[in-house]
Amino acid sequence: MGIYTKLPAEMEEVDVIIAGGGTAGCIVAARLADADPNLSILVIEGGPNNHNVPTVVVPMFFLTHLMPGNKMALFYQGKKEKQLADREVIVPSGSVLGGGSSINLTMYARPQRVDFDSWKTPVEDLQNLEGIDAVELALRFVSPDGKRQDIAHRSNPEFQPEAIGETRFVKARRMVVVSCGAIGSPLLLERSGIGKPETLEAAGIPPVSSVPGVGHEYNYHQLLAYAYKTSLGPDETLDALVQGRVDLGELMKNNDKLLGWNAQDDAWSRDFRDVPTKPLMLMSLLNGFPSDPTNIPPGQYLGVSAFSPYPYSRGHVHITKPDLDSPINFETGFFSDPHDVDLKKHVWAYKKQREIVRRMEVYRGEVASSHPPFPAGSDAACGERDGPLTDVRDIKYTAEDDAILEQWLRKNVGSTWQSLGTCKMAAVNEMGVVDPMLSVYGVEGLKVADMSIVPENVGANTNSTALAIGEKAANIFIRELGLDLSEHACQTRRSPGFSKTG
User: Fold this and answer.
1) Name one GO molecular function term (predicted).
2) Pairing with 88, which of 81, 322, 416, 474 sits 20 to 30 Å away (CA)?
3) Are 251 and 363 part of one and the same domain?
């Protein structure tokens, strides 16, 4: 069957429906189509058409997707949380064909073997998953011609989605795959009557299958970003572009190399002491101001982001009513673990990243607005300099400084775009939602394939894991549908389910 750019009016049934055209969903659609060109597949995605849109295909424009009101992202608003200074944290999620791969920072980092082993489900891996470096360059999904390698364009560069604009009913003859992301997928399941019976009944949804784990144990990487003044030149950071000091039209006309840049050069005893490949914190360098630059004077900046890859805190996401417009019951749970381990890790990370930057040749002081408001007389007080530091000694933080730092962290901890775990792959009595074949418990022919299935976090940017889930999910579905894999199919798709690690 050929590719339709418009949904035929007479189409009432298809073989497979994929609800959500994110990273994993696009991969599943492409692989199923490769396995059987006669298979009818309907991909449903609510975002705008991103085919050859400059803000998508030009890596340097990733900053536009971080701004409020961006149409290629959904911004989920959490409830007020006491441990976050009563803030309502906003969590973004890709809402466009290709999902996060179309709007993220193009940063590629793979998890370690210990991450996949923590899922307690046999996983196949064909590369070294043991090695880990203290420092590494930021790897990017950018082509030789400087274009983003997102899944939507790579899966089918000619596909252009259609805006339906009306309610249509289409049935799936063989399989439905939910791929709406770690926030969207549990909401879809609950609106379909799958979840904790009490949650469904409170929202006015007739229960179809009792799966209490839906929307439970929301997991995330908690992020803080810090800005510094720097001696880096105008062509070494993004600041000239963001602050309007360069002609964007000229950059585009000359296909400037900067357009293909993503601005990056980039509990202990129980969980970390004996597992050296499991990082306590991850830090990344950004060549440019790392936050909203609206009220920042023109200049050259660099930023350091620090995020916790294995937080102990957990949140939840649930519906409150059947309709799509009603507020959701969403708590991030950031800094909610009972012993404040997540907060203490960020206290350590703040002090560590600051000492590292203070020893850099390009360091010219802190941008006070993106650091805690330490008092003027404190050794930790922020300031600017004309040159690098010499004979650097560690900052001495007082008890007052630590209290200011902790409160500042609570007021500023935020999103990394890396939600997961709300439909996790585990047994039902362990709050699981899907089995190792990604089947939703109690519903025949219903699958979930996205980051919501991940039972434990990964010490890496999550898009590489979403890619792996899409590929493995497609392999599973191809076999269950009885489709033939081509002779040249990748070996990673030849074994059913998730096989044992080496």
Assistant:
1) flavin adenine dinucleotide binding
2) 322
3) yes
